[in-house]
Protein 1
Amino acid sequence: MTTIADPKAPRPPKPRPARLTTRGNTELYGWVFMRASGVILVVLIFGHLFVNLVAGEGISAIDFGFVAGKWASPFWQIWDLLMLWLAMIHGTNGVRTIINDYAERDGVRLALKASLYLAFVVVVVLGTLVIFTFDPCPAGSPADLLPSFCTTA
């Protein structure tokens, strides 16, 4: 005789495939990084805003010459570089978490994360290049196109 299982009985859990490798503490490290980088970013951003808006002549003084003068100092280059890198890593990690939480299909998740990482690399590489290769007075430029603080040689 054949018996039919009780439809109200709980179903046995589906067997999960055995993991070949363990995930380790990657998510824990990401969580700790988000908290630490958030604190550091607050200091960097408020320092940036204070120097640019409060300590100087306010927003009216921020122009090409102001940025050129600031980036002439290695201190401000490193400050802005840290701000760029931390903000991009912090933001990318946050968006990665959102993608993992809300993208249900594996293909969509892979495409979104690939786009995110590509955007991250492009912005970080270009931003770093701008910070370290910025020259407000390039040699051989016409004098009428150079800022007033550049000396023509």
Protein 2
Amino acid sequence: MSHATETTIAAPRTGRIDPKYTRSKGGKGNFEMLAWLFMRLSGVVLVVLIFGHLISNLLVGEGIAGVDFGFVAGKWADPMWQFWDLLLLWLAMLHGTNGMRTIINDYAHKDRVRFWLSMILYVATAAIIILGTLVIFTFEPCMVDASGQLLKDVPAFCHG
């Protein structure tokens, strides 16, 4: 004779979670919901920014063969393109960082490992955003030598 034993499975969301899977809540509040919403909205904006970037750089003019120092200098002489590329940089980095943060939270089970991976991610993100922003706004296509004369390989618009 076999005895049938009944196994009871707790209903979802009853709060019975294996302790090894619990993490300190730490007052996250609506942060995760806002991060989820940011991913959706920034993704839509990034698609527009990326296709605009690709079309202007690869399909208009000479295509990839025309992308050189002078091309970038000419684009960044226009504040609209500076803003476009800045928004693309910031949104791409923040979108990617949020995705990596989610992966770290999902797969790093130890608090200490999760903390250090997150810190490395945040420092790298801040460095790239700061350096990229500096490049966009301090880019000087019309370079001069010590005597104040234009260097010989500067774009044509520097001579005008």
Protein 3
Amino acid sequence: MPKQKPADGPVAYTLSIIGASWTCLILRDLLTHGARRFQDLQDSLDGIAPTTLSERLRTLEKNGVVERRFYSMNPPRAEYVLTEKGRDLGPIVAAMRNWGRKYSG
């Protein structure tokens, strides 16, 4: 998703980072479970293609929402953790969860 101009406002900016499909579910998993490996995320997000997950994680990392931490260098193995900026999205994800509980039937 292209980066929004500041004139588009804060909602457009937020959506430029978290508005792509699967992104909020990745955030939900990281908020709920803490640090997660790529495979852990793929296993919990039934139906996400590995390329899509990789792209979403790269976007979140580029925007300072997640950080990739290596826990093994040979072979290289990493886990993804939320930054402070990412943790600040917690109330947004919680509001979405509460809205979904209220109106999903």
